[in-house]
Amino acid sequence: MKDKLEIRKVNHGHYLTIMLDGRVDGHWSGFLSDAITTEIRNGFYNIELDFGGVDYLSSDGIRVLVKFYKELKKVNGSLYLTEVSENVRTIIGLVGLQDLMTNKIEAKPANEASTKHTTRDGFYFEREKNQVNDVITLKLSGEPGKIHSNNISVSDVKTSFFDGQNFGIGLGAISSDENDALSRMGEFIGLGNAVAYLPTDGTNSPDYSLKTGNLIPEIRHLYGLFFNGSFSDSFRFDPQNTGESIKLGRIIENLLDFTGFPTLALVMIAETSGLVGVSLSKSPEKKSEAPIFSFPQVRDEVNFTVEPAHGKMLTLTVGVASGKPNKQLSEFCRPLHKNSEIAGHFHTAVFSFRLLKKSSINLSETIGNIFESEHLYEVLHLINDEREAVGIGESEFYSGTCWVGEVKSIVTGYI
């Protein structure tokens, strides 16, 4: 018997074969697990394991097979064993895993592509029209510019609820008391039946509230952009070449072009290759001698990503973008990059990675599952760092799905 495991891979386009030669025991099963994980992260959801050279399969190896078989099946993918030796076939039969050898991946040309795909920036964009004709009303609350003043009080705190299809971003806190909320104000993101924020209480640990029973999540905020998620379209984006990523700005520019919407509201679930953003480290209510963004005050009161952060993690992003000048949005949105006519405002919540379906994703159900099953690491206000010499650019993503709707009406003074 061999005392090691050799792994080779063959890309067939719509699926991948991993060829194994050696032992899949308590030691080498970890290498197999890492190899499968890497390829799933590379976008392969249909994987064939060629067991022609495997002469030993342990219980730990079986655990790895069962784990990925179940995970891929949940997202409409598949894991299949081929060329199985008689010894390994007997073991698989004894533990009742014959399905691993029966659900063979159907062969089709590697270059066969969906006619729904549009190619931009080295990425496939696939559009799906939803059965929704409602337009989105964007509600603007508070005065973002007020955080630059030292003139903030409890009278500036408003409350919004997230019960179903409500989405929002801004500066706020989860608290039952306005005074307490004012002392913890940080970046928040509202996602249907959930709201998350990054407190400015020194812990640097995000917190969230998820609708459970009669508990309805709420946020006490200084300012915010809120909208109801009546999304008319969804777009799946994937790279043409494994490992490529696309900038947030290009995603937004493409979505505005595809839809023709002058202003759109967006929710995106995507795997990031690196995030660029900021978050407050001190509540703007805490008086300082200098404005919050003045130098060197800014170093103590604002956290900046010094390099793209949270690579290969799952993100939930909410935002608004407008392709033409809009006076109502000017205080809430900033240009995507220098000299850009497109302005936007985006917050993201960062979670541990999990597999997601590549199509027919139920947005509300998926958001709930992510909050219930994955660890929340961060809430960030995404920016484009274009400083000369030291700027690190903007957030980029490997793949994901965006839900968008047209903003037809903007209301101010929302409470």
Explain what this protein looks like in three dimensions:
- This protein is α+β, with helices and mostly antiparallel strands and 415 residues long.
- The chain has two domains: 5-101, Transcription Regulator spoIIAA, CATH 3.30.750.24; 113-415, 60s Ribosomal Protein L30, Chain: A (2-Layer Sandwich), CATH 3.30.1330.80.
- 17% of the residues lie in helices and 40% in strands.
- It is built from seven helices and 25 strands.
- The protein has a 19-stranded mixed sheet that branches. The chain has a four-stranded mixed sheet with strand order 1-2-3-4, with helices on both faces.
- Strand 2 (16-24), helix 1 and strand 3 (46-57) form a beta-alpha-beta unit.
- Helix 1 packs parallel to helix 2 (59-74).
- The N and C termini lie far apart (71 Å).
- Residues 109-115 have low confidence and may be disordered.
